[in-house]
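Explain my protein.
***
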Amino acid sequence: MGAFKAYDIRGIYNQDFNKDDVYRIGFFLPELLGTKKILVGRDVRLSSPEIHASLCKGIEDAGADAYDLGICTTPMVYWATACYGFDASVMITASHNPKEYNGLKISKTQALPVGYDTGLGELERWIKERVVMVAGQRGKTVDFDKRAAYLDFQRQWLSDDMSCLRIAMDCSNGMASVFVHDLYGSRPVYLYDTLDGTFPNHEANPLEPANTEDLKHLVRETHADIGVIFDGDADRVMFVDEKARFISPDLMIAVLGKYFLEEKGLRGKVLQDIRTSKSVRTYVEKLGGTMEMWRVGRAYAALKLREIDGIYGGELAGHYYFRDFNYSDSGLMACSLLLGIFGRFKQAGKTVSEVIDSIALYASSGEVNFKIEAKQEAMERLREHFMSQEKPEAFYDFDGYRIEFARWWFNVRPSNTEPYLRLIVEADSRELLDRKLEEAKAVLLEGRE
C-alpha cells in the first residue's frame, strides 16, 4: 500500500489502496485518536461512495459512531470538527488530483491535522500488522447535515463592496459548487459549477496553467475585473486579473493584509511558507504585520499558525489559513475576503492588476522541477556554490534551503513523494533572475543520473 503520504492518505484507488485498506483505517482510527465519534465528509469522485461505505463500516465495527456530513468541502469538515467538538474527522477526497485518485484527510481535536509524523505512520503500521476484532457492540452511522449552519458561518465574510466587481468564477466541477450559488448568487458568471467527479472540463488543479485557460477566456469575454478558480475540494482558491494573467497565490497573502492589518487594525504574526515571495514580507511589514516563515503543507502550517497565534497565513499553493477559521484553510473564506478587498480597491480607482503589480517587486521563476534521485547531494552542491560566491543575508534550513542574498534569493526543496527537487529563484530584476536561474540549473544538473 503506497497511499500514506506526509500530509494525508492518497493515491490511485484500487491500485495504491482499496476498500479493504479503508475498512481497516476506519477500524483503527477510533483507537488511534481516542474517540468513539468520528466525523466523515466526502467529495463526488466516483469512488467516494464505496470508500465512504467501507470507512463507516470500519468505524462501526470498532464500536464507534460515524457522523456523516455528506457531500461537502474539505474546509467544512475542518469547521465542523472544531465547531461541534469532534476529536477525529475524515474527509474523503483527493483534492486536485485526477479522477482516478482518491484519499482521506484526517484531523483530530480542534481540526488539527494528522500527518505521517503525528499519527498516520502509526496507523499505517497498525493496518498492516494488527488483527481486526469486531467490537461486541457495534457503532452506527448518524446523519449530520450541517450545510445551512456552514453557509451562515461563511456569509459573515461577504461584503457589499464586492457588488461593484464583474466576477468570473470556475468551480472546476468540484466541491465549491455546493456553496457558491448560495454565497455569491448571480453576481459571478459561473464556469463548471456543477458537481462531476469525472472532472470533464479540466483537472481540478488550478496550479497547472492549462486548467486556467477557460477561466482566462471567460475573463476576456465578459470583461471581468477578476477571475476566481477553486480546486477539487475547495480548500484552495486562486485568481486571474482583469488582463487574464494568473496571479501567483503567495501574493494574496499580502493583499489579505489590507483587511486584517489595515482595515481591522490587528497586530500580530502572519504565516508564509518557505517559497513565498520576498515582496509579501515587504508589503505586510509596511502594514504593521510580522512575517513568520515555515514549512510547506497544511500538516505543518495549521499547527504553526496555532502555535504562534497568527492572524492568518498562506502558501504558494493557494491555501489560506485564518485564526477566525480555527487556524485552518478555507478557499471560500479567502475568496469572500479578497473579493471585498478588490471591490474596495475598484471603488478607489485601482484595478486588480494595478494592486498586484504594486506588490510584486521581484521577478520570479515560479516553481521549477528537476528529476534528480540524489536530492540531498544536489541541494548541497547548490548551497555551497552560491554561498561561496556571496555572503547571505538570511539562511533557512527547514524544508530544504532558502538562502537570501542582497538582490536575490532561492529556495530548493525535495518532493516528499517523488524523485524531484523543486526550485524557486527570485531577484530584483529580470536580467539577474535569468542569470541566477541558469546558473542554478547548471549546478543541479551536474549530478543528475
